[in-house]
Amino acid sequence: MLSAILLQAAAGAGIAKLGATVGAGLAAIGAGIGIGLIGKGAVEGISRQPSAAGDIRTSMLIMGALVEGVALFAIVVCFLGLFQ
């Protein structure tokens, strides 16, 4: 079922558009998983050592911003490949 839908989309819109949208979706999913793991690790670290909450929170925000930046870069690259 899904493969038939993907084949119809590829035939109608072109392989480049299909590849760009799949790549952007994978980048968004990867970023979501990465940010979730960062948050999970921060909460576990704070629960083990509450005195280091400020340092852990700062590191969590910095890493989250980096993951979002990489995801945005991946999405932009996918869409740039679309227009090449």
From TrEMBL:
Q: Name one Pfam family in it.
A: ATP-synt_C
Q: Which UniProt keywords apply?
A: ATP synthesis, Cell membrane, CF(0), Hydrogen ion transport, Ion transport, Lipid-binding, Membrane, Transmembrane, Transmembrane helix, Transport
Q: Please give the chief subcellular localization of this protein.
A: membrane
* Membrane-spanning ranges: 22-39, 60-83
Q: How does it sit in the membrane?
A: Multi-pass membrane protein
Compartment annotation: Cell membrane; Membrane
What Gene3D superfamilies does the record tag this protein with?
F1F0 ATP synthase subunit C
Q: Which residues form a coiled coil?
A: none
One GO MF term attached to the UniProt entry = proton-transporting ATP synthase activity, rotational mechanism
Q: Does the keyword Magnesium apply?
A: no
Record's Gene Ontology CC terms? plasma membrane; proton-transporting ATP synthase complex; proton-transporting two-sector ATPase complex, proton-transporting domain
Q: Does the keyword Transmembrane apply?
A: yes
In this UniProt entry, which residues are annotated as the site Reversibly protonated during proton transport? E68
Domain V-ATPase proteolipid subunit C-like: start-end pairs: 18-80
Cross-referenced HAMAP family: ATP_synth_c_bact (MF_01396)
Q: Please give the family membership noted in the entry.
A: Belongs to the ATPase C chain family.
What's this protein's function?
F(1)F(0) ATP synthase produces ATP from ADP in the presence of a proton or sodium gradient. F-type ATPases consist of two structural domains, F(1) containing the extramembraneous catalytic core and F(0) containing the membrane proton channel, linked together by a central stalk and a peripheral stalk. During catalysis, ATP synthesis in the catalytic domain of F(1) is coupled via a rotary mechanism of the central stalk subunits to proton translocation. Key component of the F(0) channel; it plays a direct role in translocation across the membrane. A homomeric c-ring of between 10-14 subunits forms the central stalk rotor element with the F(1) delta and epsilon subunits.
Q: What is the official name of this protein in its record?
A: ATP synthase subunit c
Lineage of origin: Bacteria, Pseudomonadati, Bacteroidota, Bacteroidia, Bacteroidales
